Protein: 2-oxoacid:acceptor oxidoreductase subunit alpha
Organism: Nocardioides zeicaulis
Amino acid sequence: MTLVVAPEKQVKQLDRVIIRFAGDSGDGMQLTGDRFTQETAAFGNDLVTLPNFPAEIRAPQGTLPGVSSFQVHFADHDILTAGDAPDVLVAMNPAALRANLGDLPKGATIIVDTHDFTARNLTKAGYTTSPLEDDSLDEFAVHTVDLTGMTVEAVKEFGLSRKDASRAKNMFALGLLSWMYGRPTETTTDFLAKRFAKVPDIRDANITAFRAGWNFGETTEAFVVRYEVKPAPMPPGTYRNITGNLALAYGLIAGGVQSGLPVFLGSYPITPASDILHELSKHKGFGVTTFQAEDEIAGVGAAIGASFAGHLGVTTTSGPGVALKSEAIGLAVMTELPLVVVDVQRGGPSTGLPTKTEQADLLQAMFGRNGEAPLPIVAPRSPGDCFDAAVEAVRIAITYRTPVMLLSDGYLANGSEPWRIPGTDELPAIDPAFATEKNQGSGDDAEFWPYLRDEATLARPWAVPGTPGLEHRIGGLEKGDGHGNISYDPANHDFMVRTRQAKVDRVADSLPPLEVDDPSGQAKVLVLGWGSTYGPIGAGVRRVRRAGYHVAQAHLRHLNPFPKDLGEVLRRYDKVLVPEMNLGQLSLLLRAEYLVDVVGYNEVRGLPLKAAVLADVIGGLVAEAEGVDVDLTVPAPEEGSDD
């Protein structure tokens, strides 16, 4: 009898790791990444994720356009981005390897499923020879593993076809990586048991493949090192991992609860906003009504009708849908009804890059309607912050009787991070202050005027239809000041246009001062951003500061109106850098409003900005502003802890 002894494993401490799972669209990489993320969240690491997948429902198998990936960055400290470059790539086929190889730094670990490295698949991926057999991967630590073959062997007892059995290879890979990085496994086995409860063979095969992958890591001599990334210290509270779309949906529900209003969502499915519709449809218990309309225009029209009836009207979409909704949004501006318009931005123009991220709808949000039709604009900065941004959008819409544009994007919508669940006492009280009595004249001559205004907010009264004595008519034609009857008087039109603009401007009175992170107080360069650039900007700023240089950072949540002290903040610095995933839209607005010659850094690649690139750009501006040589290559005490 031969006794098999498992090789002794080393345990190496790491402060952070970036892992990317990549394969064909049918290989389940999004599920694999999501499960690894849930395990990591349960362990207590800080984390940020970056799903990346093609827009096609089924791109040609084994080709570069069909590659789907999921990147997760986890650490024992606070991190801000999903990481610039993976430390570990799990490639399920030649196309996945080729599509992601350029992102890997020297020395990165590559785990390859060798099963699909056939001549046919290599040709489809653009290889003339196998990279596993030449010297093209010599700069990396490559582990060749027949994931598919071992998976089929592990699950053969369940009688599945070879095709069905091989589908569990993503769970084998997940088990192996879970072993390598000491992830808890209970969350995944419980998930699989519930997900496939009605198909016992598929359930048991996936659980078996997952455990087989873990056991392979434990017993094989190919992997002799396990890695440990300790939990990250975080403020006390109850946490959960959350995506931006889920957080945004919860924020809308919270806004409805805090205002005491039923939430009505009128929406048409569109990538990457559809998950908000899916989530809100589950919460009828909170007074949420969801209406999947036949098109974008019907969706927003129904939401405006709901607001007229005293509900919180919401519509969710992306850039193409905003274009279709623009006339109806103008109607909400004219009728001065609360409406939250969620634009989860994606690559454009037209249908562009449906599953990729972009920030190019800012000018559309500002000006994309006929006539002078101003509305407030709010933008979240991280997946968890989508909750707070949604609550803020609801507050502004109800308080000021106006449509509000909430600009999320694909990176925030699909990415995830740990989120501390707030207590109800941390949420603002939102008073709809419905009109309950006539407001003009007295006695028998008393009337209800729907366009009289609150002195502080300039909001008009909101009268729920059916309230006795408050019957009124609203519509898209210009209103007479106060009484609200149709008016073609030139002077009245000029006055009403200016009043609607002044009402939006009044939102700034309720905003806190802009927070500026300038710890030394000696910075001559300010980096100003909005939306999802917060993470890459913050990581780039950390790198520059760690190298010993001074730089300030500020981030805008409110893009219309701007915070009242923004102009004064901009003038405090010699140079202002504005990184954006567009061709300079915020830069244009800042130059126009404040006559400050901001410096734009702009990329429109469908991917988040990279912290390392931004650090170099920031360093160049610091060198120019301070007249010094900037060297960011100086080793930092905590290398890698910036992003």
The CA atoms of residues 376 and 560 lie 5 Å apart. The first helix runs from residue 29 to 43. The first strand starts at residue 10 and ends at 13.
